[in-house]
Design a protein that fits this description.
Helix content is 29%, strand content 25%. The protein is of the alpha/beta class. The chain has 5 domains: 56 residues; 55 residues, no CATH class; 176 residues, P-loop containing nucleotide triphosphate hydrolases (Rossmann fold); 179 residues, 3-Layer(aba) Sandwich (Rossmann fold); 81 residues, 2-Layer Sandwich (Alpha-Beta Plaits). The strands form 9 sheets. Strands 14-15-13-16-19-12-20 form a 7-stranded parallel β-sheet, sandwiched between helices. It has a 6-stranded parallel β-sheet with strand order 21-31-30-22-29-28, sandwiched between helices. The longest helix is centred in the C-terminal third of the chain and has 17 residues. The mean pLDDT is 91. The structure holds zinc ion (ZN) (2 copies).
């Protein structure tokens, strides 16, 4: 028996299958999708079995070890693997790694073993048994160690070990054959073992002391065993939730989805903000679980997990949660629960699309319009495409929920490729917020220089007086988006990315949002040496500063990527605001998404039109969705208001905000038709990066020509938004093509992809 293996080295030249001999004693453990340790060159590496062969002309070495008890990549995940090979320029090894839960990956550890003592300062690093586990910081000694290895004084060994280990604690079992004389004094403990074989030490310590346990152990009444326990996700919320009573529209949508069980039908659950889309899919999940199947629920951002988790966990027992803010150990155990079939509902963000859930009865993508569903690093994919593969595999419905669907999605629904389910009314109070537009040009003309308009100040005062809450959106981090010299116009930029640096008032620093570069802020201009380098424009910290000035008594909370970096802090802020320990929530785009705060009666945006002029074909859609969602946070349980401030308010992405979504949809669709943009054509983007500005540009040009020879319409090359990343210059090509051209495009791109010129294909066009 032989196996084909993909080695976990992400090097283009080595990214192929290698055949190995299976030794007799390992044959029974071999399965496709398991990982093995194999000799590779002079190393030992981890590899994934992708094929089992009866014959191989190239295999010369045997595999050394089978790592997994069960396959880590299922047949279903191999379908996704095949799809990603044909739809991305990523390496096979990178794709396998993307599919494998990070917490189940293995790390390589170098160890030096002392053979003979010798005289050198490094000898003190070896422990009593003559071993030294090298940490990353010890790698500086590596060349020295290799010299000692040559002289046979030490031996260097590389071992492969799991990244995360299961949590093991002490438990006790009862020894029925003991002959301890004084057992009568301890019957209350012995009794415990009537009900369960193994009891955790920590549980026994609730009813007795450590010294009693030691006595019993010493006299062989009980003995120690290792017990693997699962680490749990902890939450900051309670588990009370109201019962679900569906209204007529919700019932209709529910019945439609249930009638689609055991088909891979796609649904667009389109309901105005506050119409109760979540209730519909919660009720559907109930039915799925009754039928003995499982449910996969995705939300776009970690911030939205808590709200849905609260509702799911109040109703269902076995919910696993997956997102990147969990600790490694907890995440490992949540995955283990899914592998072991102990979780029948999985709630997670984007990468939970790979959750090893079996027997799926429903897949939900909540807030389908959200850009976070697009993976833009390493292996690039649209979550929706992978969800379709899974829905087909399990023959289960796939539900997209949204109040503001992507134009492309609504277009498919209008053309009956997706079944449209409508919830036209708000569930609790059938009234949309009253929207007021404030032109900031007029504010300035009439003498108000504050970024808070008079109307906004007035409504904020009323809201706070009524003991209600407000949400304010400003989609820029820091205090000012950039600084500029008032004399010569100089704008400091990031030395590695080329984008302008953001000003942070509290730290008095200039920071790059893309690579983390930062430098102290000085008002002296390095260009003309004047002292006129000053912050320009507005950003979140400045808005909070202004609000504090006008409302010193109000409690203001902030939610942006700087506040959510800490584990659990997003959930904390959400819960704090929900429990009314906060009057105004100021945040970036993340506050506009999906939140349901009953006491919010005012939502406002500081600069509505700030992103309208970006060069994306869908800049209109991005603006509209963000603002429509923001408006939807207000007045969900009692009448509410919304204020839209901006300079250019006549654009259809803004002046249709008061009306139904379909007004915007029709305007946007007409604009797309004229410009020949999606959904009328498929558009994708290629980023070409490499050393040297001119050389990379030329390479991009050659790739363009090659694509054009194959009849693809290509725009560019033009500079990418982030021109430089590290040492690499970046250019982009935009391709207009048909859906089924992707395979051929990928084939062409792969010919040019090498270690010098890196090519990333994206099935959308707003990668930065
Ligand atoms: Zn200057
Ligand atoms: Zn940078």
């Amino acid at each position: 028996m032989f196996v084909s293996v993909i080695i976990d080295l992400k090097i283009k030249e080595l990214d192929q299958k290698y055949d190995y001999i299976v030794p007799e004693e390992l044959i029974e453990f071999i399965e496709i999708g398991k990982r093995v340790v194999v000799p590779f060159g002079n190393m030992e590496r981890l590899g994934y079995i992708v094929d089992i062969l009866t014959e191989s002309k190239i295999a010369t070495k045997p595999i050394l070890e089978v790592v997994d008890i069960e396959p880590i990549i299922s047949d279903e995940m191999f379908l996704i693997y095949d799809y990603l090979i044909n739809h991305t320029t990523s390496l096979k090894s990178a794709i396998l790694e993307a599919i494998t839960p990070t917490e189940f990956m293995h790390d390589y550890q170098k160890k030096a073993v002392l053979l003979k003592s010798f005289d050198d300062e490094i000898i003190q690093n070896f422990n009593r048994i003559g071993e030294w586990l090298l940490s990353k910081s010890d790698y500086k000694y590596l060349s020295k160690l290799k010299r000692f290895e040559k002289s046979n004084l030490i031996k260097l060994i590389t071992t492969i070990k799991p990244r995360v280990n299961p949590k093991v604690v002490i438990g006790y079992e009862y020894n029925h054959n003991h002959n301890y004389q004084r057992i009568n004094n301890y019957l209350h403990i012995v009794e415990q073992f009537f009900y369960q074989n193994t009891i955790l030490r920590s549980d026994l310590l609730e009813i007795t002391t450590a010294s009693v346990l030691n006595t019993l152990e010493k006299n062989e009444v009980i003995y120690r065993v290792d017990v693997t326990i699962k680490r749990e996700v902890t939450h900051k919320f309670d588990l009370n939730d109201k019962d679900i009573l569906l209204n007529n529209d919700q019932k209709k949508a529910y019945n439609e989805i249930v009638s689609g069980f055991n088909t891979n039908k796609e649904y667009l659950l389109y309901g105005v903000t506050g119409s109760g889309k979540t209730e519909v899919y919660l009720k559907v999940i109930e039915e799925v679980i009754k039928n003995g199947k499982t449910a996969l629920i995705l939300v776009p951002e970690i911030n939205m997990i808590a709200q849905v988790a609260k509702r799911l966990k109040s109703k269902f027992q076995d919910v696993a949660i997956l997102h990147s803010m969990l600790s490694l150990g907890v995440k490992h155990d949540e995955y283990q629960k899914i592998y072991d079939g102990e979780a029948n509902i999985v709630l997670g963000t984007r990468s939970a699309i790979f959750a090893p859930l079996d027997n799926i009865g429903i897949i939900v993508l909540d807030e389908e319009q959200d850009e976070s569903y697009t993976q833009t690093e390493t292996v690039i994919y649209e979550t929706k495409d992978l969800a379709k593969i899974r829905s087909k595999y399990h023959n289960c419905p796939l539900v997209y929920a949204s109040a503001t669907p992507k134009v492309e999605t609504m277009y498919q629904a209008q053309n009956n490729q997706i079944k449209l389910l409508e919830l036209p009314k708000r569930a609790v109070i059938d009234l949309m917020p009253e929207v007021t537009f404030v032109n900031l040009k007029n504010e300035l003309k009439e003498g108000n220089t504050s970024i808070l308009s008079r109307k906004l100040l007035e409504e904020l005062t009323t809201t706070l007086n009524n003991n209600e809450q407000a949400m304010i959106l400003i989609n820029r981090l820091g205090y000012a988006p950039f600084v500029m010299c008032r004399v010569c116009g100089y704008v400091p930029t990031c030395p590695s990315c080329g984008v302008s640096l953001t000003y942070y008032h509290e730290d008095s620093e200039l920071k790059c949002h893309y690579c983390g570069y930062h430098e102290p802020y000085k008002n002296e201009c390095p260009n003309c040496l004047s002292k006129e380098l000053a912050p320009r424009g507005i950003a979140i910290e400045q808005v909070i500063y202004e609000l504090r000035k006008y409302f010193p008594k109000a409690k203001i909370l902030k939610l942006d990527t700087t506040t959510t970096k800490k584990k659990g802090s997003n959930e904390e802020i959400w819960y704090q605001f929900l429990s009314k320990d906060g009057d105004i929530l100021v945040g970036t785009q993340m506050i506009a998404k999906g939140f349901d705060f009953p006491d919010v009666t005012l939502s406002a945006v500081i600069l509505a039109d700030e992103n309208l002029n970006l060069s994306y074909y869908n800049a209109d859609e991005k603006t509209y969705i963000l603002l429509k969602q923001l408006i939807g946070r207000s007045g969900r349980h009692k009448p509410g208001k919304a204020i839209i401030q901006g300079y250019n308010l006549s654009h259809y992405a803004i002046n249709t905000l008061e009306k139904d979504y379909m007004y915007f949809y029709n305007k946007a669709l007409a604009a797309r038709k004229i410009a020949n943009y999606p959904p009328y054509v498929k558009m994708s983007q290629v980023i070409i990066s490499g050393l040297g500005y001119l050389k990379t540009y030329q390479e991009a040009y050659i790739i363009k020509e090659s694509l054009e020879e194959n009849n693809h319409k290509v725009l560019g090359p033009s500079q990418a938004f982030i021109l430089k990343r590290g040492e690499d210059y970046r250019f982009k090509l935009t391709i207009k093509h048909e859906d089924n051209d992707v395979n051929q495009i990928i084939k062409i791109l792969k010919e040019y992809n090498n270690d010098k010129i890196r090519i990333i294909y994206t099935p959308f066009i707003d990668l930065e």
